[in-house]
Write a structure and sequence with these properties.
Blueprint (H helix, E strand, L loop, with lengths): L7 H9 L14 H15 L3 H12 L1 E3 L2 H4 L6 H4 L18 H7 L8 E4 L23 E4 L17 E4 L8 H5 L5 E4 L6 H12 L7 E4 L4 H8 L6 E5 L20 E6 L3 H9 L7 E8 L2 H11 L7 E8 L4 H5 L17 E5 L9 H10 L5 E5 L9 H8 L7 E3 L23 E2 L9 H11 L15 H29 L1
Parallel strand pairs: 1-2, 2-3, 3-4, 4-5, 5-6, 6-7, 7-8, 8-9, 9-10, 10-11, 11-12, 12-13, 13-14
Length: 497
């Protein structure tokens, strides 16, 4: 063996190329692919003594469930590692571990650093473990959508940094108590028993001293006050809004370092109260998904957001809106106009009915002039009647040279430019969504995209099925590009002769 492989840093670097489970796209790996990665590390561990420890550490560092550890138990090994390669066994009918089997189960548990629990049918097997047991003493990340019930304490490590639970656990206070290093706490659910769960959640959060990111059901003012005194806090997410805030606690200090706010709610009332009454002087990103956004709530929300001139990324989405369209047609304070004050915007995403009211060539030009640094602009309005033309789009794009993603209602029926004579080019635009457009002449639209937007490589979102006319535009676009490549090849060959 080469002496370089005796250097642990070099060895780990080599091994990391084998570990596909740690790949950023790990969530799309199949069960068989993850099993193959584990087999590769097991083979490396058996190769020689210097390989054993680093290979075993990487083999066990990240687990989807504790089944592999249960496979270390002699009695359970043939059940876990059966030939079919799929999870078809039932843990409910299996007897709990004995004390000797518990030691087999825990043999490699200290190597686990990240654990994602997908199933909850094996918890009863762990009933033999004493209450003070910490199964994973080096665990940094715990994520589950299962109710851990009375077994939560077994998964809490003194070095745990990230904890994602499906609901407010009755023993939630044990998380900050036993995990002093906790940085991220996530509970993306509604309250079950509102009165009891609220108190448990609030008491638990007030025990957290070093939170960096928090996602949870709605908070009361006292808990907001505690969080305002955490200089480590950067990200806040609020899920559901079945609790009202009431009057503001005047003692709440500004959230000096919070850069991102996210709200997932049924109405905008809770979000409005937070953005109106609290201060976030460093806020960069605001995201909101709300079921219903009537104009009576949208207007005060937009006005409250206008106080945060530091915002660079804004995303607001709603399934429905009960606003009166006629009331807005002649109004100056339409959704788009209320965001013209954000001159440093990089991303603006609107996805709610009537968000494009009064959007025409003039308003688009005014908006683009106000957002010269914009990179992504999406106005998705199912009720919009497209009035922006290609000529108006070209004029507006002159004002935002860095734009790379565009999705707005565009009149692609009445083409008001000559694509063969137009010299305008916007080389930064890469994604131009055409899925919501009515297109009368697919070839002409393709010629415009080919001539004016040479870097566009996507005309419909990757998660949506393209319409027939979009596919026709794409075919013409590919034909134009192939013809250009052929012409360049012929010209290059001719110049050499």
């Amino acid at each position: 063996m080469h002496r370089a492989l005796l250097v642990s840093e070099i060895l780990l670097e080599v091994f990391m190329h084998v570990n596909r489970v740690l790949d950023p796209y790990a969530l799309i790996l199949s069960y068989r692919e993850m099993a193959l990665a584990r087999k590769s590390f097991a083979a490396l561990a058996r190769t020689c003594k210097p390989f054993y420890e680093p290979a075993m550490d990487l083999l066990w560092t990240e687990l989807d469930g504790i089944e592999p550890l249960l496979g270390c138990v002699t009695r359970l090994h043939p059940i876990i590692y059966h030939s079919s390669g799929s999870r078809c066994f039932r843990f409910e009918v299996i007897e709990p571990l004995s004390e000797h089997e518990a030691r087999q189960f825990l043999h490699h548990s200290s190597r686990v650093r990240s654990l994602r629990i997908l199933y909850g049918d094996y918890f009863h097997l762990l009933s033999v473990l004493p209450i003070e047991t910490c199964m994973f003493p080096r665990l940094l990340s715990l994520s589950t959508d299962q109710d851990l019930n009375r077994y939560l304490h077994l998964f809490l490590s003194p070095v745990l940094r990230r904890c994602a639970l499906p609901l407010v656990h009755p023993d939630l206070k044990s998380v900050p108590t036993r995990c002093a290093a906790l940085e991220e706490l996530s509970i993306k659910s509604s309250f079950g028993n509102i009165a009891a769960d609220r108190q448990v959640l609030y008491d638990s959060i007030r025990l957290c001293k070093g939170l960096v990111a928090l996602a949870c059901p709605p908070l009361d003012w006292a808990t907001w006050e505690h969080l305002s005194n955490l200089p480590t806090l950067l990200t806040l997410e609020i899920w559901d809004d079945r609790c009202s805030l009431g009057w503001r606690n005047p003692k709440i200090a500004p959230f000096l370092n919070v850069t991102r706010l996210y709200f997932y709610t049924k109405t905008a009332a809770y979000t409005i109260a937070v953005t109106q009454q609290l201060e976030f002087p460093s806020l960069i990103q605001f995201e909101m998904e709300v079921f219903d956004l009537p104009w009576a709530e949208a207007e005060p929300l937009f006005h409250a957001l206008s106080r945060y001139k530091t915002l660079l990324h804004i995303s607001i989405s709603s399934r429905r809106s009960s606003r009166n369209v006629q009331d807005l047609l002649g109004s100056f304070l339409t959704p788009i106009r209320q965001f013209l004050c954000f001159t440093q915007l990089r991303t603006l995403r609107f996805n709610f009915p009537c968000c494009c009211i009064n959007l025409d060539n003039n308003l688009l030009l005014e908006a683009m002039s106000s957002w010269p640094h914009i990179r992504m602009l999406e106005f998705m309005d199912p009720q919009a009647v497209p009035t922006v033309t290609f000529r108006g789009l070209f004029a507006a794009l002159h004002r935002c040279p860095r734009l790379h993603t565009l999705d707005i209602p565009l009149n692609a029926v009445d083409i008001d430019i000559d694509p063969t004579a137009e010299s305008f080019q916007h080389t930064s635009l890469q994604h131009l969504n055409l899925t919501s457009l009515d297109i009368s002449d697919a070839k002409a639209v393709s010629r415009i995209i080919f001539s004016a937007f040479p870097s566009v490589d996507r005309i419909f979102p990757p998660n949506k099925r393209p319409s027939d006319v979009c596919l026709e535009v794409l075919r013409h676009l590919e034909s134009f590009r192939a013809s250009t490549v052929l012409d360049l090849h012929v010209a290059g060959a001719a110049s050499k002769t």
